[in-house]
Amino acid sequence: MKIAIDAMGGDHAPQSNVDGALAAAREWKDTEVILVGDQAKIDPLLKNRPSNLTVRHAGEVIEAEDEPVRAVRRKKDASMVVAGRMVREGEADAMISAGNTGALMTTGLLIVGRVGGIERPALAPMIPTLDGKGVLALDLGANMDAKPEHLAQYALMGSLYREKVHNIAKPRVGLLNVGTEPGKGNELTKHAFPLLEELPIHFVGNVEARDVMNGVCDVLVCDGFAGNILLKSIEGTAGALFSLLKEQFSQSLKTKLAAAMMMPQLRNLKSVMDYKEHGGAPLLGLSGLVVKGHGSSDGNAIKNAVRQARTATQNRLVQSISSEISRK
Amino acid sequence: MKIAIDAMGGDHAPQSNVDGALAAAREWKDTEVILVGDQAKIDPLLKNRPSNLTVRHAGEVIEAEDEPVRAVRRKKDASMVVAGRMVREGEADAMISAGNTGALMTTGLLIVGRVGGIERPALAPMIPTLDGKGVLALDLGANMDAKPEHLAQYALMGSLYREKVHNIAKPRVGLLNVGTEPGKGNELTKHAFPLLEELPIHFVGNVEARDVMNGVCDVLVCDGFAGNILLKSIEGTAGALFSLLKEQFSQSLKTKLAAAMMMPQLRNLKSVMDYKEHGGAPLLGLSGLVVKGHGSSDGNAIKNAVRQARTATQNRLVQSISSEISRK
Where found in the cell (chains A, B) (predicted)? Predict the structure, then answer.
């Protein structure tokens, strides 16, 4: 199994990417890890390189500020684009990048290419839940507008991902909506509902935004716009409450003392909300697995993304998606 | 000035509604408060009735479980419907109800009627912000799907409401979106953006869901579906974090002690998130003001809704909306 890592993408590249690649290559001897990027910058960071770790030189880099489509089209020798080409040509089973999200989605669409029958690949990060298990939500920003048929494909792909990668036997799939009753929603969700009922998945019906964090489903289906509003509202509210809490805790000596007494518990609280702990977000519906690591990924996050990609490849996720879609 | 109160709507009706009506009539002698509902149930609760408080008998009640459109069409003598008819016929300047939300929106549309030129009335509750001032968000559920022109009308109505009722000189109007740059969004928000730029309002551009609670705008424009996702995500996340906090605080004697020390501060925290404190939600775009009180409204909440309705009537909100819309 071969996994390509974009060595140049992310806030802490190439150091964290190299660290993660080294750790992964050491842990999984059956996996060939390929660092893609500027050899002159990568080589000095590679001490005691294991034999299952190699470097593929790529001379250009897509920056965070680059306009995605133009960058992918013009920078043909960018580390991200080269990694994508390796997946398309079978030189790698999966690729990981912590770089520019838009450019990675474009790389997926234009370089890696879609699974036959899939209209829209979907970005599927985990959203935090109170039980710490998280929910896979898709689409989260790859496509702002969606048709009912797209939501049905997201449902199928999300369910397969949870089954194959997270080993959940019958993942509960919910549709993000404004009420739980079947007739609720906008034109999109009203038309998507019957399509989801027909799929070979465990569809649990409509899920309201306020219930998402209670872990009522394993997969949450939505269009990119609604998904963005959901995720950013959760982030914003949690951030706002933590800053309020901090303010309240610093009001007096008494409250500061209380805060000190509560410190381990407050850390627990914060870690529940930290969806970064759930690893990278897969970009589903492509002819090879693409994993989007957080921009702030450290070595451990990169290693975890390799773990995700390994599990998905071992369990033939892409092939399963392809055969389920063609069966429809 | 005459304000009709649906005496029978809400979880604590008619007691809270009567309490609120009494308090309002006592405070504002220039206002005629009319309680609409079952006289036999209202009269025993009316002690020392001030002369500016009257009762209009209505023999039927729309229940929380009633299907809105059918209930409004069939229960012609329901307290809510009678109050709506009074507004339409000029017997009241405004009406307040804490009853079935869907039925109240239907009453607004079918009984009170729209301002000429308004395509869709909008429900506009306040969403909490960290500075405690709140943001008026519309539409929150009256219409699931919207066209760009509808969002432009929401923007105009929301801006006028904040100016006339909350006395904000140049309300900052934002468009709920997935990014702050002008080109961002789905088809709806991309097409609404230039329309909002042309309006005689202080349009501050796109606002991301995560910034809403930071109070970056006074009016937030969105379609009913996205607005519902936003509001319920905020509610859900706050609820989830409070329950987590409670759990963490009950872990040991030490944490319980810390919790006791922090109690006043924790109450502050909770009250910031309590958007019910901002009063009732106006239903804008109707030929008379309709205010939706929370189902759980107590007497004080009903009185606050009367205050809102009074201010809006004094400052000729409905007439301003009508003339701005016809000017376009």
Answer: Cytoplasm
